[in-house]
Amino acid sequence: MSKKTTQLNLYLIQTKTAFLVSAFFIITIAKAQTTVVDFENPTEYQHLAWNGTPEVVTNPNPSGINTSANVGKYTIPASSAWSNASVVIINTPLNLKDLSNLEFSVIAPSGSQMYSKLELDGVGGVAEAYATPTADSDWQKVTFNFSHLGGVDVNTATYNKFTFFFNVNDNVGGEVWYFDDIIVNSNSLSTKSEKSSKFKVYPSPVTNQLFVKSGVKGLAGSKAEIYNVTGKLVRVFNGESVNVSNLNTGLYFVSVTGSNGEKVVKKFIKN
Predict the structure, then answer these.
(1) Where is the Secretion system C-terminal sorting domain (predicted)?
(2) What sign results for the dihedral spanned by CA atoms 90, 96, 102, 105?
């Protein structure tokens, strides 16, 4: 086999692999997504607690995946873990039919297990799940997997109360947890090809500055996220451009969620 034929075959394999990965990735992350609370508008929620001290404070580490101005803060008191929790109640209940998972950003002082409960205030708990973060002073994504419920019946899937128990195993009094960007995901696909065609990401390949132009009502000014081919979130930004010079060479995806909850995804190549 000639060298030219070998190079051609390798190119075809790489192209096919990139296509399959991108197709799978878009289907995976293009699920319906709703931001519950980002702690930027205090008129949209109540931040309470079962014991402990609930606060909304200035972001102590505005970098990485979370550069927002305000975040939630919870200080654990020295008492039983199951009597200590941070509680967020939103003004408008959400109908979360086919609930898949709940995620949020967290600065975790320990790698102890966390517990999340979704309720309709005054009615009681409906969905419960656990997650375990990594002890880190940087922001990280934590996901509570609710897929074991097999989808929640539409008649009982209305929630407005989100309760988080931090460090349920060790319960270290005085431990401080920061959290932000509470998001719920469902299994209903919402991306539309018409909107996707108006959403532009360029240039590709890109070396330094990447530009994002939505041209779609409801997407302009929305927060954008960049994922690598493994589905790992590597960058969050607002605006119409972002410097990607420090990203490794490879295939990436820009995901933007509009004000109506619909998500549009475009891929680009980093040189």
Answers:
(1) 201-269
(2) negative
